[in-house]
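Objective 1.3, modelling of assemblies. Example input:
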Amino acid sequence: MFAVVQFPGSNDDRDMRFAMKSVLGAPCALVWHKEAALPSDVRAVLLPGGFSYGDYLRCGAMARFSPIMAAVRRFADAGGLVLGTCNGFQVLCEAGLLPGALLRNQDLHFVCDVVHVRVERADTPFTSRARTGAVLQLPVKHGDGAYYVRPDELTRLEASRQIVLRYCDAAGVRSPGANPNGSVGDVAGVCNARGNVFGLMPHPEHAVEAAIGGLDGLAILGSLLDAVKAGAPSA
Amino acid sequence: MSRRPDPAVDHALAREHGLSDEEWERILAILGRTPTFPELGIFSVMWSEHCSYKSSKNCLRTLPTKGEHVLQGPGENAGAVAIGDGLAVIFKIESHNHPSYVEPKQGAATGVGGILRDIFTMGARPVASLDSLRFGPLDDEKQRYLLRGVVDGIGGYGNAVGVATVGGEAQFHPCYRGNILVNAFNLGVVDADRIFLASAGGVGNPVIYAGSKTGRDGIHGASLLASAEFDDTTESKRPTVQVGDPFTEKCLIEACLEAMRTDAIIGIQDMGAAGLTCSSFEMASRAGTGIEMDLDRVPQREANMTPYELLLSESQERMLLVTRAGAEDRVREIFERWDLDVAVVGRVTGDGRMRVRWHGETVVDIPVDPVAESAPVYDRPRHEPAGLRERQHLDRSRVAPESDPAGALEALLDTPNLGSKAWIWRQYDQLVQGNTILGPGGDAALVRVKREDGTPTHKALALAVDCNPRWCWLDPYGGTMAAVAEAARNVACTGARPLALTNCLNFGNPEKPEIMWQLAESIRGLGDAARELGTPVISGNVSLYNETAGQPIHPTPTVAMVGLLEPWERFAVSHFPAAGLSIVLLGETTDEIGGSEWLALRRGVEAGLPPRVDLAAERRLHRVLAEGVAAGLVRSAHDVSDGGIAVALAECTFTGPGGLCVGARVALAGDLGVETLLFGESTGRVVTSSATPDALLALARREGVPARVVGETGGAELSIEREHGEILVRTAVDRLRGIWSRALPRRLEEGER
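Predicted structure (tokens):
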């Protein structure tokens, strides 16, 4: 089963469940953030977008103290698959499950737009349905999406192949105009060293129907489903 | 316990509260005594223009509000319309003009918060917002500050609360310099048999307060801020603007919807204007009951608040619920799970009185009905504004013809009124809830309907908001009809059938006879158009006193139309989707240039009668669009409005997704002057593209709608010529797109004017 964590202020929780359940046909439930444990049959955890705790103090800074996060950490430490989109990505960074931080967008404005991202590696449980170098068209909508790590840390992440998605143009070429928020290295998504925790600013759950945002989100969420079917560890 | 003593209540204090001499006498008659200070506060807000509609009520009574699919008309928090299969939509538009001028970010944010509460109070999940905004010209730093603040406020609140902002409009005119307009629309989806009303039924039932704590913010927002003109003391009114907390609102939405899924809730009302006072009076009045309340039990943010402050605070994100007796704990549990304050503050009584205690002392004891329902209604004097006839007369012989049509097109696309609004709506989450088929930038937004359990349906709602204030200034009756017609046409362009409308009547000071005349004429036009188009007025809001230092705004009756498209899988976009399609113009171009954008921009003249509206023809046109889209004969449809057919064609070429540009070559018939032919704004016209033009023409002929093939899509240029070959415009689409897309950013971010 897929578990979508519902923090107070989560907005895309129901959309994520819709994508997994109604579009991909996978069992999926919302799990309340005050729960101390994940349901025992959970095979992947999804941290959705939104404004957990209003994004007050700092995006994701309070959600990481929700009781469920201890269980998510244990799950990840045991090799469980964890995907965070947008606010979920911010929570994972705040929780230290992913490297780096998400800062205010470079132009200081919230941005809602469709962007292109290049798949830097297809050998992860989150990108196996794509091929390396493939360009996905996905929506972004965030005010704090500028990925930041120190330059030496970025080099290290690149060396350890932890950069999974980068902003690019429709042809797959990186350029400042294609980066919607000023992320270092045009980073749109990163995974942990082990490769079982992945965070991205774009919203795959909003690109799962041809006439509503397109189908490229399935490259991410479908990959996760494939990985679970192939036997990912449970909670 | 002691508290700060209340001031002595007398006639002079009543005047300071905005009550007229006549209203003061009426209060004395109702009570048979002098009111207490909190009672005076209650009367002043309940009888304020904002809450009582005392100037507009007589006119509003004439509006068509019923229809076979209307489940709830005006009078509740919002209106409701059935959309089939047991589903209904709840929607309304509301103003937050004065607060947004005084404090743009919080003013706009709380405008969004307020309209959302009107929707979920009725049991619906809010799914889509629109905003109708008006500012003064952007060459003024103050206006740029206001625009930035308002957009920040709308986005900051709407994005965080998880409701998509899918469309809207923004216009700029000097008449809004001292009085901007911020009208916020929201629509929610609900099971038709699960609509909740604001009614305090069942004697003995508990009255429960839930949401944020009460503070001292927003006291007299409704009476002093919303119901009076602006002057040079406006800055001092900043404390009357409330502060919004979208996080609490989001939790409140979820908690309320959860509580409503139980059988505990009898009635529910949000605390909006005039807070606890208005909500409790309205709930008791609708049920024919009374309420007794202990103010000490109200969750409070600050110490030592007086009864007067507690009753009149407009602190945001608060709800008042009446539940079944014995269900208190169940409801309490839900709100506490969402970390919201919740408290039983009183109970429903059968004696029709509002009794409020504070530490055991009765501070309010007044009959409910005379306050809530017997508010004064004024038949204010009205007469046609001086100079109107002169304005309406346009001496065409003194209007120099356009000598540079291509230049005029570029100049029009470069105006903030006609240029791209992407700078604004890129800051809004247009996608959350995953239903946005068509977002901002087209004729109408199109939003797929899901059930509350997440099951998708084949229904989609088309949403548009429109008003041409210049037309309404030149002719409030015709201009308002045109707003209704355009909103309906925009909805029809997607293929949807217009269902019903909501409106926000933004006008000046109704105590001036010429403003009252504008208001009355406008409402007459609204009613006539709504009747003829079969789209009843199911909710609305009146915003008066939109004046600063005696200068009123143009009459601005914004109309938000909702249409239904089913199955939604066949819909039309507004841009040309591909090359090689025939361009078919539906409707007739007539010799009208009065009130046009071209006339204002290129000749500096705002005069003439606006274009005529033929509602019967409009209805036929909507039918052709609905049938044409359903039959696959119409690939795209875009309404001809501000800037005429040249601007409409240009928009068709470059507004596709991802910067898609599809050129067009068009030949226009007729011997009209070039400015009228290209930039005239005669109504009832739609530019469509079709792969099967003969079938579309046949359909149009059958319905009696004038239609002709005027060109073909393709290439990288927009070329418009006369039928006999004279080229009027021939410009690269890229170039037009560049000008259009820079219109706002270059003024807002690069300091250009």
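The first helix of chain A runs from residue 13 to 23.
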